[in-house]
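Figure 2 data, in text form.
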Amino acid sequence: MNDKPTKGTAHAAPGHALISIKGIVNIILLLSLFTAGVAFADGQTRPLSQRMAETAMTLWNNSAESDPGKPAKWTYDQGVVLKGIEGVWYSTGEAKYFSYIKRSMDRFVNDDGTIRTYKLEDYNIDNILPGRNLLLLYKVTGQDKYKKAADLLRQQLRNQPRTSEGGFWHKQIYPYQMWLDGLYMGEPFYAEYAATFHEDTAFDDIAKQFVLMEHHARDAKTGLLYHGWDESKKQRWADPTTGRSPNFWGRAMGWYAMALVDTLDYFPENYPQKAELVAILNRLAVAIEKYKEPKTGLWYQVLDKPNEKGNYLEASASCMFVYALAKGVRKGHLPGSYLGVAKKGYKGITNQFIKTDANGQVNLEGTVSVAGLGGNPYRDGSYQYYLSEKVVTNDPKGVGAFLLVSNEIETATKPPVGKGKIAVLDYYFDDEMKKDASGQMVP
C-alpha cells in the first residue's frame, strides 16, 4: 500500500475518508468565524467587573481625574478606582491590570519617594487613601520608592491634628472636625501599613477612630450616622448641643462601612478591639438594611427621607453598602442573611445604574459628584444642599465602588471549588522562610 497522500488531499487515518485541502481551508474559515462570534459574545458576557475596568482604563488612561480639564493631582478618587482594579487583577491574573495600577502611581511617585502634587503640611486625610496602592506595589515589586512614599503618608498620620480624645481631624482647614469619609481615607491604609511593618501598637489608635466616630455621630433612634461632627460646635452646620451635622448622607455612611470591612482584614485575630469593630459593623448593618428601598434594594442620597421632594436613589452609596455587607458575610463578621440583601442590592445597581453605549462600553450612572461640609462656598449640610450637587455618569468614586462590589459579588457567586477539601503541607520537607516587606524572616 502506498502511504504517500494523493496530491490535493490530506492524509486520513485508516477507515476514514480523505478531506481535500480546499475542504480544510473552508473548515478553518468557519472555525475563525465561529471564534470571532464567541469573542464578540464574550465581550458582552464577561463579568461586569472586567467590563467596568476597561471603561476606567479607557476614561483615565494614566490617572483618575477628579476635576476633568485640570492637571491631574494626587487624590483619593484615583485610590478607590485602583483598589477596584486591583480586585480585577486578583480575580483574572491578567498583567494589564497590575500594569495600569503601576503606571497610574508612577505618574506621581518620584524615584526618591516624594509624591508629585502631594503636600504633607495640608494634613488632608483624603490624601492617605492612595497609599494602599503604594503598599501593593511595594509588596509586589520590592521597589524602595513605593515604601518611601508610603512612609511619607504614615508620617502625615503621626502628626495629623486630633480632637481632644485623639480623633483625626478631617483636614487642617477643618479644625476639630471628624467626618465619616475620613475613616475610609485613612484607616485601611493605617491598618495595612501597621500589619506590613509590624507596628502592632498602632491598632489601638486605629480602633479608636471608629469608636469615636460612632460615639459622636450615631443616632440612637435610627442607627444611622451623621455625616460629620464638630468638637468645637462652632461650625454653622453643627448642632450647638451635639456638634453633629444635620443629615445622614448615603455615601458618607458608605465610606464608613467599607472602612470597617477593609480595616478588619489587617487586625490581628485575637486583638482585643477587633470584636468591638465587628460589633460596630453589625450595628451599622442593621441600619443599612432598615433604610434600603424595598423594591429595588437600593439606598437614597439622604438615607432617611425617601419620600421627601427631590430625593433620589444614589449609585455610589448603594455600591458601598452592598460591598460592605457581602464582604462582611464572606469574612464571617456578619450573619449570612445579609448576603441576600447584598445580592438584591447588586441586582438593583445593575438594573438602575449600569448602561451600555453603542460602542459596548459599560457606564455607571447616578453618582453624586461630591458633598462636603463648610468650605467656600459654604456647605451647610441641609437636605437642600445634598440635593443641589450634580449627579453624573462615570464619576471615579462611583466607578471605583462599583468595581469593588462587582468583585465581591462575583466572588460570592463562584462555585465553592475548594469547599470541604483539605490541603496538607509537610513542614519537615517543605520548611522554607522568606523576608517579608519589613525584612523579618517568616514562613
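Caption note: Confidence is low (pLDDT under 50) at residues 1-42.
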